[in-house]
Write the C-alpha cells for this entry.
Amino acid sequence: MTLRNENIQKNLRRRLKRVAKDACSIKTAKKRLPITRWLPTYNFTILIQDMIAGITVGLTAIPQGIAYAVVAGLSPEYGLYSGLMGGFVYLFFGSSKDVTVGPTAIMSALTARYVLDYSSDFAVLAAFLSGVVILIMGTLQLGFLVDFVSVPVISGFTTAAALQIASAQFTSLFGLDGKSGTVFSQSVYNFVVNIRTAKLWDPVLGFSTILILVLLKKFGEGCSRNDTAVRQFRWLLSLARNAVVVVIGMIIVYVIKVVQDQEPLKLIGDIGSGLPKFQLPPFSTVVGNETYDFSDMMETLGPQSIVIPLVSIIESIAIAKAFAGGAQLDATQEMIALGFCNVIGSFVRSMPVTGSFTRTALNNASGVQTPAGGIFTGFLILLALSLLTSTFYFIPKASLAGLIITAMFSMIDYEIFMRLWKNSKRELLVMFVTILVSLWFGLEYGLVIGILAEAVMLLFRVARPKIEISSLKTADREAFAIPLGDNVAYCAAEHIRRAVLEAAQVAGDDAVIIVDGSKLRSMDMTVAANLMAVVKDLERKSRKIVFLNFNPEIQKICESINNKHADKFINAPSAEDLGMLNERKFSAVNVNV
Amino acid sequence: MTLRNENIQKNLRRRLKRVAKDACSIKTAKKRLPITRWLPTYNFTILIQDMIAGITVGLTAIPQGIAYAVVAGLSPEYGLYSGLMGGFVYLFFGSSKDVTVGPTAIMSALTARYVLDYSSDFAVLAAFLSGVVILIMGTLQLGFLVDFVSVPVISGFTTAAALQIASAQFTSLFGLDGKSGTVFSQSVYNFVVNIRTAKLWDPVLGFSTILILVLLKKFGEGCSRNDTAVRQFRWLLSLARNAVVVVIGMIIVYVIKVVQDQEPLKLIGDIGSGLPKFQLPPFSTVVGNETYDFSDMMETLGPQSIVIPLVSIIESIAIAKAFAGGAQLDATQEMIALGFCNVIGSFVRSMPVTGSFTRTALNNASGVQTPAGGIFTGFLILLALSLLTSTFYFIPKASLAGLIITAMFSMIDYEIFMRLWKNSKRELLVMFVTILVSLWFGLEYGLVIGILAEAVMLLFRVARPKIEISSLKTADREAFAIPLGDNVAYCAAEHIRRAVLEAAQVAGDDAVIIVDGSKLRSMDMTVAANLMAVVKDLERKSRKIVFLNFNPEIQKICESINNKHADKFINAPSAEDLGMLNERKFSAVNVNV
C-alpha cells in the first residue's frame, strides 16, 4: 500500500500549492517579460561581466555565423544577420542568462535545400514561419510535444545532420567543380562523380585547418580564465581557434594575391556589405522566371514548416534545461522568446535560429550574469557587418570547410552506439532508422520517421505487456496467478484474454485462475469487456476465476458490462503476499470462490 | 516480490510448451484445412442437424442478401452471389462451426460509395482486393493489428454505419424522387431537399413493415425450437420475419397489379436472372466514357482497400470469438478462410463479405454441428437464383427500406453511451469523434480517425503517468517518495524529471528524495538520461536523492550514462513498506545516502 495518511498528503498539497502560487502571484506581464525581474538590480559590476562574456561569444559568433551561412548555401552576411537580433530580442523575453540564440549548424542544414533549389527568400520566410509556429505552440502550451522525441531519435538526427553537413563541404574541401548536395547521399554521390576535378591547394589548406583546430583544442585543455597568464593565453587561443584559422587562411590568400597576384584558392568572394534593412519578410518571390506567391512558397517549404520550428524548440529547450542547473524551466517562456527571435529576425533577413550549444556554453564559461550579454555580442556583429565585409572576401572556402567539418565531428555522440548496443537493441534500431532515413531522404524525414517509429513501438509494447503467469500449489488445490500491470490499455485486452485462456488450458479442472489487479490503477472499457467475456466463457466450462484486489472504480467498470459477477471480485493479501502463499492464506483466498 | 520459485516456474513452462507442441504436432496442412479434422467423423445424424440449420440460415440469407445489395446500391442478385461462395469456401478453411460468411450491412455501406459513383465492378474488385489483403495479413500474422481498434471505436463505427445505412433508405421509405447519399450527412441533406416529392403509399407500406417486424420479434420472444407446437410456430414466424414482410409486400404489389393493373409503389424491378458466370474479377472497367485500368481503379478505391479488409477481419474475428466459447481462437486460420471467401467470391461477382452476426447466431441456435451447414445455405441461394429472380421483380422498395431500417436500429449499442458517460468520459469522447467523422465524411474516415485518436490519447497517457509524491516524516529527517510505474517510456522522462524537481523544491534542505523503482520493470534510455541529469542538478545544490529498488538491468542502463552514481542505488524494504515507515527502517534506508 502506498502512503495515504491524510494529514501528510494535505500538508504536501498545501506546500505544493504555495510554490505554485508564488510563481503565479507575480503579474503575468512580469512573468512573460523576464527582463523586469533582473533589470532593477542591474549594476556596473554585472555590466562588466556581461560585456566580457558578450564580446567573447561575439568573437565566436562571427566565424560560426559565416560558416553556418555557408552550410545553408547562403552568402556569409546572412549568418551575421541571423546572429544579430537573437541577443537583442532574447534580452527581453529570455529566462536563461546563458542561452545564446542564433544560427546553428542543424538549422542551416534544414534550410539548405530551399536555398540551393530556390532562393535565399525561402530561408527568411522559413524563419518568419518558424517563429509564428513556435509562438503558437508556446501560447497553446504545446511544448510537451517535444517529449515524444526520444534521446535515440535526437542522437540519430544529430549524427545524420553532422554527416550531411560535413559531406556537403567535401566540394569546398577538395576544391571540386560542380555542386555538392542537400542530402548526404547526394553529396557523397557528387563527391565521387567530381573527385577528378580536385585541386591541390584547397585540400592542403582544408586539412591543415582541421589539424590546427584539433591541436588548438588540445592546447587549451585543462586551462581556464582564472589561470596563470600563460595558461590564460592558451585558454583564449583555444577558444578563439575558429577565428584564428579563418584569419590565417585569409592572410595566406592576401599575401599570395599581393606577392604573386594570383588566386590559387577558391574564395568566399564578394558579399553584401553594410547593415540589413528592416523590412517585411518576403511573402512572395521570383525564382528564375517563376513568381511564387505566399501559398506557392508554403507548398515548397512543405513539411519543413513544422520540422524547423520543432527542431528549433528541441535544441533550445535542451540547452536551456542543461544550463538551468536543476531549476524548473519555464518552457513556455523559452518558446515565446525563441518565437520572437525568429519573427523579428526575419525582418532583418535572418535564417531560422535557435539556441546554440557552443556559444551558450562559452557564454556560461565566460561568466555571463544576465541575458544582457547578448547586447554586446549583437554590437560586435553590427561592427563586423559595417567594417569587415570587404575583408571577408578573402576567406578561403577550404578553411571554412575544414572548420565546419571539425565542428561536425564533435557534434556526434559516439558513446551512445555502444551504450544502446549493450542495453537496448530496440532503441538502437530506432536510432539507425532515423540516421538512415535522414542520410538517404533528408533530415526532416528522418526525424519524422524516427518519432513515428518510436511511437509505434511504444504502442506495441503497451499492447503486449509482459505477463508472468505463476503457478501456486497448496495441498488441496492449484491456482494460477495472472498479474496485471498498473495501466492496462485497450490494445492489451486481447493479450490478457489469451493469457487467461492459456492458464485455463494448462490448469487442472479444479484449479483457480487469479487475475491479480493489485497494481492496477486504470483500465480501458475494452479490457473490461474482454475480461467479462472470458468469465462467461470459463463459466460455461465451469472453470473458476477470481479478480484479486481490483479497486472499486475498476470493478464498477467491469460490473457496468456484466453485473452478475460481483462475487468474483475479492480482496485478499496483496499479490506480493501470494508469492509466499501458505496453505492457510490460500484457503482464505478461496473462501469467496 | 512475485513468485520466483524456480521449480514451479520450470514446471509451468514445461506444461505451457506441451500445450503449444500438441497444437503444432498436427501437420500444418491439416491445421490449415480444418475440414480434415471433422470430416472423418462426419455421420448421418450430424448431416441432418447441419441441413436443418443450413436451410434455416438460408431462409434469412436470401432476404438479407437482397437488402444488403440494395444498401450497397447494387442490383439484388449481387447480394445472392455474395452469399453463395461463403458457405462452400468456409467449409474447407473455417475453424468455427457457427460462423456464416456473406454480405453484411457494414460491408455493403463501405462499398456503396463506389457503386453509386462508379459501377458494380468496383464492388467486385473490392472483394478481390480485400481477400488478397486479408490473406496477406493472415499469413504474415498481422491479425494483432485489430487489437488497436477499441470497443468505443467499434461501437461508434457501428452506430454511425447503422445511421448511415438507415438514412440512405429514407428515399425508398418515402418514395422520394432523386438520389439518396453515400454518407449520412448527404443522405439527410437529400432527404430534406426532396421531402416534397414524398408519395403516399410507399411510406404507408414502409412504416407498416417496420411495425410488423417489431411485433413479430416480440411475438417470438421466449419461444424456442424445442417448445410446444404453438410456441415453435411463434419462434419460426419470428425467425422468418424478414422473409415474411418481403413476401407480404410482394403479394400486395402483385394483387394490385392483377386487379387494377397499376404499380402505385416503387419496385426493385428487373434483375439479372440465373447463376453468375465463373470469371476473373474486373481488373479494368468502363464508367460512362472513361476506361479505368487497374491502377485507376486502385486509386479510386483509395483508403477503402485497407479499411474494407480491416473491417471484414474485425467483424469476423469478433463473431468467431463470441462463438468460440472460451476455446483459443486461431485468428490466422479465420483470416485465411475469410481471405479465400472474398477472393473466390469475387470470381462469381460477390461484393466484399465477412462473418454475419445475425446469421451466425441463427446457425448456432438452429443447432449446427459443422461448417457443412453452409453447403445447404449455398444450395438454397442457388435455388433462389435459378427460380425466383423473376418473382423478386415485385419486391417493393419501401418494404426493403423498412426491413433495413429496422435491422439497423438493433445494431446500435445504446447502453454503451451511458456506460461510458458514467465510467470513462475520455472513451466517450473517442466514440463521439468516431461517430461524427463517420457521419460527416464517411465511415472509413471515422474508423481511421477513431483508431488514431485512441492511439494518440494512449501515447499521452503513457507520457503523463500519475505520480503520487508521498511525504515521509521521521523524528530527525524528512523524505519524499516518488513511485515509478512498471514501464516508464521515453515520453514520460520529462514528466518524471519535473516530479523530482518539484519534490526537491518543496523539500527542506536535508530532506531525501526517494525515486522508488520497486515496480519498475523496463525503462527507456531517455528516462535514464533524464534521471542522471537530475542527479547532477540536485548534487550541485547538494540535495540528496536515492534510487530505491531499481533492478540490476535498469541500474546498468543508468550507470552506462553516468557511472559516478552507483552509491545512489539502494535496495531496501519495498515501497509498500515505506508507507508504514518507522524510524528504524527509515534510518536503514538512509545508511547509504
Observations:
- The first strand of chain A starts at residue 101 and ends at 102.
- DSSP finds 28 helices and eleven strands in chain A.
- Confidence is low (pLDDT under 50) at residues 1-5, 578-593 of chain A.
